[in-house]
């Protein structure tokens, strides 16, 4: 583990940590000394059609000498969400950082979405982050500070109005498989986050949203088939580095932001991206 551990003594909860961006954030935080409670539906290998599990990420963290906890939960179910913060507190004594990374989406035209899917999208992408934040706030207040990072999406950016250019980024998706409902849930998350930032400022608690500039080639994104439809990809390490920045700076300095990963790193003067173990810069990636 690194000697200069930015999150030493901190406890972080990271949802959707079995793969992709969530797993990267959990690993990066652990490398910086945080005790990490990782949450996902996929705890054991082979229980999902997608590769990755909490147990696999936990093995990597423990191999670095870090401490972690695996919590199996479906964030669409309120009763399962209710176990997450208490389990983290029981194991580690409190919560300093909450990263709401888990998301649910179905790319489909708005008028073709079932109301069940719309409710599921909102439940996981907006209601669950609010619910977990509410549960974590008493511990953060007691500890005198806290950090909440809500993962958003580049799809929140509004498409241009008519007349339409069907080669433009947004419309390169199959028009029957658009991201509008998913994007709407993330837009709601962003607006909620900005309001909460003002409300939580007196308690020294920072809350921000973070999105990739356009897309990260995670297992979930590959499953949705959206990677071929975007012009820019960035390494998952950039998202982890930006999440670390949002989880380590004082609330009176960095809160109430709708941040894009690479833009944020440039703004903060961070010209390189670290590997997830925090030991070196990512080869051939600087800006």
Furnish the topology, listing elements before pairings.
Elements: E1 11-15, H1 20-31, E2 35-40, H2 54-63, E3 68-72, H3 78-81, H4 84-92, E4 97-100, H5 115-143, E5 146-151, H6 180-200, E6 205-211, H7 219-224, H8 236-246, E7 258-260, H9 261-267, E8 272-274, E9 281-286
Parallel strand pairs: 1-2, 1-4, 2-3, 4-5, 5-6, 6-7
Antiparallel strand pairs: 8-9
CATH topology title:
Rossmann fold
Summed up, the helix count is 9
Spans of at least 5 consecutive residues whose pLDDT stays below 50 are none
Distance between the termini: 26 Å
What is the SS-derived class?
alpha/beta
Structural description of this entry:
The chain is an alpha/beta fold and 287 residues long. The protein has a single domain (11-103, 133-153, 186-286), classed as Rossmann fold (3-Layer(aba) Sandwich), CATH 3.40.50. The protein contains nine helices and nine strands. It has helices at 20-31, 54-63, 78-81, 84-92, 115-143, 180-200, 219-224, 236-246, 261-267, and strands at residues 11-15, 35-40, 68-72, 97-100, 146-151, 205-211, 258-260, 272-274, 281-286. Strands 3-2-1-4-5-6-7 form a seven-stranded parallel sheet, with helices on both faces. Helix 1 (20-31) packs parallel to helix 2 and helix 1 (20-31) packs across helix 8 (236-246). The chain is globular, with a radius of gyration of 18 Å. The model has no long low-confidence stretch (mean pLDDT 90).
Brief digest:
With about 290 residues, the chain is of the alpha/beta class.
């Amino acid at each position: 583990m690194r000697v200069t551990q930015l999150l030493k003594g901190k406890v972080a909860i990271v949802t959707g940590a079995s793969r992709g961006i969530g797993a990267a954030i959990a690993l990066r935080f652990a490398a910086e000394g945080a005790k990490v409670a990782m949450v996902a539906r996929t705890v054991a290998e082979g229980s999902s059609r997608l590769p990755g599990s909490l147990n696999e990420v936990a093995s990597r963290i423990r191999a670095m000498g870090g401490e972690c906890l695996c919590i199996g939960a479906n964030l669409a179910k309120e009763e399962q969400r209710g176990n997450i913060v208490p389990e983290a507190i029981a194991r580690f004594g409190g919560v300093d950082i909450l990263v709401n990374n888990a998301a649910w989406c179905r790319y489909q035209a708005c008028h073709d979405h079932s109301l069940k899917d719309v409710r599921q999208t909102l439940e996981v992408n907006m209601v669950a982050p609010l619910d977990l934040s509410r549960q974590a706030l008493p511990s953060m207040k007691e500890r005198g500070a806290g950090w909440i990072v809500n993962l958003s999406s580049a799809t929140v950016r509004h498409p241009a109005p008519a007349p339409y250019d069907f080669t433009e980024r947004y419309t390169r998706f199959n028009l029957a498989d658009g991201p509008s409902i998913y994007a709407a849930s993330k837009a709601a998350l962003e607006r909620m986050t900005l309001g909460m930032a003002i409300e939580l400022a007196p308690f020294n608690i920072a809350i921000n949203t973070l999105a990739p500039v356009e897309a990260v080639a995670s297992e979930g994104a590959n499953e949705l088939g959206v990677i071929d439809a975007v012009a820019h990809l960035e390494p998952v390490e950039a998202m982890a580095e930006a999440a670390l920045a949002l989880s380590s700076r004082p609330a009176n300095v960095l809160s109430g932001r709708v941040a894009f990963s690479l833009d944020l790193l440039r703004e903060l003067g961070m010209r390189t991206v670290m590997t997830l173990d925090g030991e070196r810069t990512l080869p051939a990636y600087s800006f």
